[in-house]
Amino acid sequence: MNAATGARLQITGPASVGTDGLLTAQFTVDACDPAAVIAFFRKFLPYEDETLETVENVFALLSGPGGTISNLALNINRGEVRLGPVKLGEIPPLTRF
Questions:
Q1: Can you count the helices (H) and strands (E) in the chain?
Q2: What share of the chain is helix, strand, coil (3-state, %, to 5)?
Q3: Distance in angstroms (rounded) separating the CA atoms of residues 19 and 85
Q4: N or C: which end of the chain has fewer CB within 10 A?
């Protein structure tokens, strides 16, 4: 995601879905102006305010000079989502359409 404001979010890494539909992934998160990134997602995910607040707090704690995030681990293990050491929640099994 790149915004006209200069905010940027990049998530890269491998992901797989087990036969039970549970997602497993090892992502790396890089962000520029994380506060603007969170503000962007709040517009589209107002019902996830508690989770976004947790992500915003983790970003604030782990951001480097200029408010950047580099190489932050976003791991999903059989649906359990962790951003760095913080558990964010769970993703239900993915179903086939």
A1: 2, 6
A2: 30, 40, 30
A3: 27
A4: C
